[in-house]
Amino acid sequence: MSFFIEDAMAEGGVAAAAPDLISQLMVFGGIFLIFYLLFIRPQNKKMKEHKAMVDALAKGDEVVTNGGVLGKVVSLHDSFVTIEVATDVKLNVQRSAIGTIQPKGTIKSIKN
What we know:
The chain folds into two domains: 20-56; 57-112, SH3 type barrels (Roll). It is built from two helices and five strands. The protein has helices at residues 21-55, 106-111, and strands at 62-65, 70-76, 80-86, 89-94, 98-102. A five-stranded antiparallel β-sheet has the order 4-3-2-1-5. The relative contact order is 0.12.
């Protein structure tokens, strides 16, 4: 016998009601809907936007890679892009490594 909590006594003849299956399914469905709206849908939208941006790359675009390297697109290949980061310095990066496309003239404004 506990000092702070009284012992629970079962009443005779009253059966404990089992939770309704439909209400349990509604709760799990609601939880899945919340996860879909908060996590899955925004991630899919972001992936589609990034894929469209990478597919729209063109020669002469100024880009920033996921690593923070700023450069101008010199040539495009199936899965790689060649960017020029300085005079006669070219890097081959994967298309998926392109983070953003910058407005024209960004490199000149940074060089001063």
